[in-house]
Specification:
The protein is mostly helical. The protein is about 65% helix and about 0% strand.
Length: about 70
Amino acid sequence: VEARFRWLQSYFKRRGVAVETVLVEGDDAMTRLMRGAAVGDFVSYYLALAHGTDPSALPGVASLKKALSR
């Protein structure tokens, strides 16, 4: 897993995308997973706001719902 993250980090950096590593603490894997997910949610929410995008708009989810309703 660590090798994949290193590769992904270099991939983004080569394309000029800033990369930050966040180490999530917790007593067990589930705690770390949930805390990491929460950090990711906050980051994506505030990035959307910063770029003038509605953070609640989820075109992928809307497309999936439409396809499943058929």
